[in-house]
Amino acid sequence: MNNSPKIVLLLLFMLFGSQLRAQKFGYIDSEFILNKHPDYKVVQDELAKLSNEWKKEAQSLDQEIKEMYTQLKAEEVLLTEEMYQQRMADIKAKEKSSQEYNSRIFGINGVYYQKQAELLQPLQSKIYDAIERVSRKNNLAVLFDKAAGPSAIIYSDPRHDYSEFVLEELGIDEN
């Protein structure tokens, strides 16, 4: 009577254990794949060009503010209190517009990050499709991304790295 639950557990383990062993796991390094893709360099160059233009505009605004402060300091003794307060208000308004510009361009939901997402989206779709095809070809149940962060994978055996297969699927030569 005591052996009956053990036999049932053994049968269940054998039944479900074979299914668990059939699952295959692997990982890729999406950062490695992105850096190898020729379109990524084009996207990075375009983003750098846009970013430099926006940074120059922000620097020009900052330079104008510095010049306004310098001019105010030079003329401070000649100005009435009302004139001084008006100039300070103008400087504060210019500082506020500079901060708004920086926030609008480089903020969390700024133009820079929207442009980055827009430019990277087609490339990410291509890579995702290649990852899906590699996963299906190799019967992978789970495919991790090594570049996703330190908590995603603690240890990885290189023989389970499918990054090269994804590059091959994308038609990108290693060298």
Automatic annotation (TrEMBL):
Record keywords, A-Z = Coiled coil, Signal
What InterPro entries would the database entry show? Answer: Chaperone_Skp, Skp_dom_sf
Q: What is any Pfam family matched here?
A: OmpH
Quick check: keyword Metal-binding in the entry? no
Would I find Lipid metabolism among this entry's keywords? no
Q: Please give the coiled-coil regions recorded for this protein.
A: 44-71
What is the top-level taxon of the source organism?
Bacteria
Gene3D superfamilies given in the database record: Skp domain
Regarding protein family, the annotation reads: Belongs to the Skp family.
| Name of the molecule in the record | OmpH family outer membrane protein
